[in-house]
Amino acid sequence: MQHDSVETAGELLIILRHAPHGSSWLREGLDAALVAAAFGRQVTLLFCGEGVTALVAEQTAGPLGQKGTQPTLEMLAMYDIDTLLVDQQALDERGLTAADLLLPVRPLAPPQLAAALAAHPLVLNF
Amino acid sequence: MRYALLVQGGPYSHQAAHSALRFAEAAIARGHHLETVFFYHDGVYNAARLAAPPQDEPHLVDGFRSLHEAHGTQLKVCIAAGLRRGLLDEREAARHGKQGHSLEAPFELTGLGQLIDAGLSHDRLITFSP
What is an example of a Pfam family matching this protein (chain A) (predicted)? Predict the structure, then answer.
């Protein structure tokens, strides 16, 4: 176990499992996080699977038409969303390390992921 | 128990909405209270007023509507997800200069904050996603 705060973290855990471009899952999941934070809820984000690619630095919206998510991620701190958990295994599988990412994150091993899920009274999965 | 459902799958494209309705009916039959269904992502299409499925398929929109009529379940549709997908009630249609409306009571357009409230105020929030 790394840190007590995973177990004692916020009221709401939002799991992000989709890459930024190709669907609106990530954007709509982040919208839910921002709204919850704006209503004063303590929000934790967990990036899993393809969702870890959301955090890769230096993305642009480009010509794809989908509104990019990087500006939203950069705003998280303003909403006091600063517990960003990342599935370590998903990083490893994609050859990524925490240094490749836009924001400081806490990588978690599978047992810690389970603890994070258990620690939040409400979990929303996007 | 007091249940809320979150539906994120579009009707007929995915199993999610079918399963949500079946879960709703089963939970109620077991004596639980289904107080809220929240529609988000492509789930907002389950509120389409003009849905006209073939007669030999379950009518999902009517299925959700009857939850409200029989059990008072609130049917809440995320306004941001709805508007960008063309789900507008009369008021929003007028506001955006559209000729028709595609969503009507008992479905109601509401903010995402209502999803968070539902999640925290009910005993269980069950998500149905594709």
Answer: DsrE
CATH fold, domain B2-128, is: Hypothetical Protein Ychn; Chain: A, (3.40.1260)
Look at residue A1 and tell me if it is in a domain: no
**What is the tens place of the pLDDT at every residue in B56-83?**
999 999 999 999 999 999 999 999 999 9
CA B1, distance to chain mean position in Å, is 20
Show the tokens assigned to B97.
Answer: 């200069």
Q: Residue A43: which H helix or E strand, with range?
A: strand A43-47
Domain that holds residue A105: 6-125
- Please tell me if residue A24 touches chain B, with a CB cutoff of 8 Å: yes
Which residues of B have a CB under 8 Å from any CB of A? Answer: 6, 40-41, 80-81, 111-113, 115-117, 119-120, 125, 127, 129
pTM: 0.94
Contacts of A14 (CB under 8 A, 6+ apart): A29, A30, A32, A33, A36, A43, A44, A45, A46, A123, A124, A126
ipTM of the predicted assembly exceeds 0.90 = yes
